[in-house]
């Protein structure tokens, strides 16, 4: 399986490392491909959109034309933080300020920087789907999912806010699983991608 | 229980701006130009380094109202500079809520012996370095991100290149020593940092925090050069808004960082930029005029 990693900007190396570790721990064959062109995107079986600055990613995707290719992309997707914002269907708060466009891959309305600026960034143990023990989630200038469509499934909440969800084969987290050594969320995505083939 | 201001969170913030361009801006209008061009963050200032250099006098933290104007104008993170060792300026910027503080040699140092104890802050810091010893001392003080010092406000990339090479070479050296099983305690003593930080760096084969290039980057080609040398991203100070066509230069430098390994793309974005900022020959400068000697 080839998992693409959208290579515009952000913590790409951390996602690549976590994905490789997850392949290993699952005992699955797979590799990570950095995606900056439509040709590279076409070679992938699934795609991860990393953390970073969603405004920056959106503007650069629009310029390169890759935004439209992503709209058409039918394979499994995983977005963390900025990636979650891009995959969402709409936004309130800061997203309205920039006129941000969304890929609409998951029926979810997001609130950007919902917890505040960097000073308010935090980490905390949360429950995630059927994980047997809590997951240490790192939230950095993080968004939250304000509302999720009827086909969406909530995977994790914190203080009453949805911070992880999926719909069919699209997975989104407001936090950064790639910043910890715990690769269970990446394993979750790879299993999801493998089962959708 | 929620944790804030841990190394993981502070260093994590720096990781989110990787492969990006951080631009110096002096007002809301410039901040919007930077955001529109695809900057990952802006550095809010009253004067860009080239003007600080030209005008002289004591350069201090910007007026908070100036920073607020910029914070209100954009949704990308906003950074601001404090004088080396000026803990109170840093406290003010933390209270203001900037996303990262640059303890910067571009401003006039407030303390010639000590840097700020950055581990005491919730907000992350970035600091300049010319070599591995400086970089590790700053990290040991709590810096969550390092940038080369280069020579700010000159439009001349030569010092940033020198500093990036030096850091890379010194990491390679300790990596080799570690692989051969040679002790690193003398290195740690000469760098004035704990041994485990040197060992960790040797094991990683890179700095344990994000490392950007800064100081003299003036063209898309300069930015690409620094990325090819292994920088995680670039700061562009005077290079954007002292150029003939800032909007175009801003877009071109962002594209150059994105496609730093693709000469055809670099060629396209380098065309017809209308002129980069005027530059200074480092060799014609007096040592006392170089900002990089501040805060080692």
SSE order and pairing:
The complex is a heterodimer of chains A (197) and B (296).
Chain A: E1 2-6, H1 12-26, E2 31-35, H2 38-42, E3 46-49, H3 54-64, H4 66-72, E4 77-80, H5 82-87, E5 90-93, H6 94-98, E6 108-112, E7 122-126, E8 135-139, E9 144-148, E10 153-158, E11 161-167, E12 170-173, H7 184-195
Parallel strand pairs in A: 1-2, 1-3, 3-4, 4-12, 5-6
Antiparallel strand pairs in A: 6-9, 7-8, 10-11, 11-12
Helix pairs in contact in A: 1-7
Chain B: H1 7-16, E1 21-25, H2 28-37, E2 41-44, H3 49-55, H4 64-73, E3 78-83, H5 87-96, E4 100-104, E5 125-129, H6 132-140, E6 145-148, H7 158-179, H8 185-191, H9 195-204, E7 210-212, H10 220-228, E8 234-236, H11 238-241, H12 246-258, H13 263-270
Parallel strand pairs in B: 1-2, 1-8, 2-3, 3-4, 4-5, 5-6, 6-7
Helix pairs in contact in B: 2-4, 2-12, 7-9, 10-12, 12-13
Order of neighbouring strands in the sheet with most strands of chain A: 2-1-3-4-12-11-10
Largest interface: A-B, 39 and 37 residues
Task: Report the major sheet of chain B.
Answer: 8 strands, parallel
Number of domains of chain A: 1
* CATH homologous superfamily label of chain A: Class I glutamine amidotransferase (GATase) domain
Note the quaternary state here.
heterodimer
By CATH, the architecture of chain A is named: 3-Layer(aba) Sandwich
Report on the architecture of this protein.
The complex is a heterodimer of chains A (197) and B (296). With 197 residues, chain A is an alpha/beta fold. Chain A has helices spanning 12-26, 38-42, 54-64, 66-72, 82-87, 94-98, 184-195; strands spanning 2-6, 31-35, 46-49, 77-80, 90-93, 108-112, 122-126, 135-139, 144-148, 153-158, 161-167, 170-173. Chain A has one domain (2-195): Class I glutamine amidotransferase (GATase) domain (Rossmann fold, 3-Layer(aba) Sandwich). Chain A contains 7 helices and 12 strands. In chain A, the strands form 3 sheets. Chain A has a 7-stranded mixed beta sheet. Chain A has a 3-stranded mixed beta sheet with strand order 5-6-9. Chain A starts with a strand and ends with a helix. Chain B has 296 residues and is an alpha/beta fold. Helix content of chain B is 44%, strand content 12%. Chain B has helices at 7-16, 28-37, 49-55, 64-73, 87-96, 132-140, 158-179, 185-191, 195-204, 220-228, 238-241, 246-258, 263-270; strands at 21-25, 41-44, 78-83, 100-104, 125-129, 145-148, 210-212, 234-236. Chains A and B meet through helix 1, helix 3, helix 6 and strand 7 of A and helix 1, helix 2 and helix 12 of B.
């Amino acid at each position: 399986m080839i998992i693409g990693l959208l290579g515009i900007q952000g913590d790409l190396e951390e996602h690549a490392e976590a994905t490789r570790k997850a392949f290993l721990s699952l005992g699955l064959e797979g590799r990570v491909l950095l995606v900056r062109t439509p040709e590279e995107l076409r070679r992938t079986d699934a795609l991860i959109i990393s953390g970073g600055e969603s405004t920056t990613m959106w503007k650069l995707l629009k310029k390169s034309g890759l935004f439209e290719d992503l709209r058409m992309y039918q394979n499994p997707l995983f977005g963390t933080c900025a990636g979650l914002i891009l995959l969402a269907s709409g936004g309130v708060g800061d997203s309205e300020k920039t006129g941000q466009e969304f890929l609409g891959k998951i029926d979810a309305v997001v609130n950007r920087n919902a917890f505040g600026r960097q000073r308010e960034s935090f980490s905390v143990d949360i429950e995630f789907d059927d994980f047997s023990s809590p997951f240490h989630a790192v939230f950095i200038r993080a968004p939250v999912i304000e509302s999720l469509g009827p086909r969406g499934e909530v995977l994790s909440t914190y203080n009453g806010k949805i911070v992880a969800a999926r719909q069919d084969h699209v997975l989104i987290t407001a936090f950064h699983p790639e910043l910890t050594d715990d690769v269970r969320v990446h394993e979750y995505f790879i299993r999801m991608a493998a089962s959708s083939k | 229980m929620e944790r804030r201001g841990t190394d993981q969170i502070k260093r994590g913030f720096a990781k989110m701006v990787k492969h990006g361009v951080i631009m110096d801006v002096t007002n809301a209008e410039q901040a919007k130009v930077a955001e529109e061009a695809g900057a990952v963050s802006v550095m809010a200032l009253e004067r860009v380094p080239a003007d600080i250099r030209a005008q002289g006098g004591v350069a201090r933290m910007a007026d908070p109202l100036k920073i607020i104007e910029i914070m209100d104008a954009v949704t990308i993170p906003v950074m601001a500079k404090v004088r080396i060792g000026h803990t109170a300026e840093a406290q003010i910027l933390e209270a203001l809520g900037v996303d990262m503080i640059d303890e910067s040699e571009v401003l006039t140092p407030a303390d010639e012996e000590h840097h700020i104890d950055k581990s005491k802050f919730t907000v992350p810091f970035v600091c300049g370095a010319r070599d591995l010893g400086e970089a590790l001392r700053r990290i040991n003080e709590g810096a969550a991100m390092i940038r080369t010092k280069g020579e700010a406000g000159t439009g001349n990339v030569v010092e940033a290149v020198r500093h990036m090479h030096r850091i890379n070479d010194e990491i390679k050296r300790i990596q080799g020593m570690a692989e051969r099983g040679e002790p690193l305690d003398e290195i740690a003593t000469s760098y004035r940092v704990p041994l485990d930080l040197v060992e960790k760096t040797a094991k990683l084969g890179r700095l344990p925090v994000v490392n950007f290039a800064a100081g003299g980057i003036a063209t898309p080609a300069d930015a690409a050069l620094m990325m090819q040398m292994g920088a995680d991203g670039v700061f562009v100070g005077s290079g954007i808004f002292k150029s003939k066509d800032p909007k175009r230069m801003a877009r071109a430098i962002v594209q150059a960082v994105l496609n730093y390994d693709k000469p055809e793309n670099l060629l396209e974005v380098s065309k017809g930029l209308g002129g980069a900022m005027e530059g200074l020959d480092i060799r014609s400068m007096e040592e006392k005029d170089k900002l990089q000697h501040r805060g080692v």
